[in-house]
Amino acid sequence: MIKRILALALFVTVVLVGIYAVITVYDNNMRVGRMWETPVIRPREEPIPAMPEGVVPFSGGEAMIRAKAQEDLRPPYNNITEEMAAAGKTQYQYYCVMCHGKNYDGMGTVGQSFAPLPADLRSPIVQAMEPAYIFRTISYGIPGGGRQPALHGTITSADRWRIVAFVKSLGSRQSQ
Q1: SS in 3 state form for the chain?
Q2: In angstroms, rounded to a whole number, what is the distance separating the alpha carbons of residues 46 and 48?
Q3: Which of 88, 73, 83 minimizes the C-alpha distance to 164?
Q4: How far is residue 35 CA from its own chain's centroid?
Q5: How far is the first Cα of the chain from the last one, in angstroms, to the nearest whole number?
Q6: Can you tell me the distance from the alpha carbon of 63 to that of 7, in angstroms, rounded to the nearest whole number?
Q7: What is the pTM of this model?
Q8: How far is 25 from 82, CA to CA, in rounded Å?
Q9: By three-state DSSP, how is residue 51 classified?
Q10: By the 8 A CB rule, do 133 and 72 touch?
Q11: Is the CA virtual torsion 147, 151, 152, 158 positive or negative?
């Protein structure tokens, strides 16, 4: 009787360890993750930094940016530097990765539940977009029911331009 109980306990342990191993392999190697583990904020990580003092404008500001025609909207940089792209990547990880994913393909932990999926940021279509169009999309969302939220109230305009610089620095995904 004791041998049967020990054999059953050993069998149950082996099955549970096998299930755990399969789940671990899935989490580490598949393009899509599970909702309980988000790559952005983990327990005991530092929170999103507070907005620095002096960023609330007393003249101009978001209303002036929104009022500009798209062809008049210009990035505050001429060339994308490594530092600017790195700063944009940091902002991307705070605000964008949960939908667009760690591979920039629209398969983030939240984005994979959307139909259609969020944009593949390395697709030739996105890479061909003007920086001003990407900036407007990040800032004010996609009109007509698009799932891109308007982030102008969440992310400073300088950081939105940094995200645009990062997206443009990714380049097009190579065909496989």
Answers
A1: CHHHHHHHHHHHHHHHHHHHHHHHHHHHHCCCCCCCCCCCCCCCCCCCCCCCCCCCCCCCCHHHHHHCCHHHCCCCCCCCCHHHHHHHHHHHHHHCHHHHCCCCCCCCCCHHHCCCCCCCCCCHHHHHCCHHHHHHHHHHCCCCCCCCCCCCCCCCHHHHHHHHHHHHHHCCCCCC
A2: 7
A3: 88
A4: 14
A5: 58
A6: 71
A7: 0.65
A8: 34
A9: coil
A10: no
A11: negative
Confidence tier at 11 by pLDDT (50, 70, 90): very high
CA 56: distance to chain centroid? 25
Q: How far apart are CA 169 and CA 172, in angstroms?
A: 9
* pLDDT tens figures, 101-140: 999 998 999 988 888 889 999 999 999 999 999 999 999 9
Task: Kindly state the tokens that stand for 82.
Answer: 């490594």
Residue with tokens 């299930």: 19
Phi, psi of 163 (to 5 degrees): -65, -40
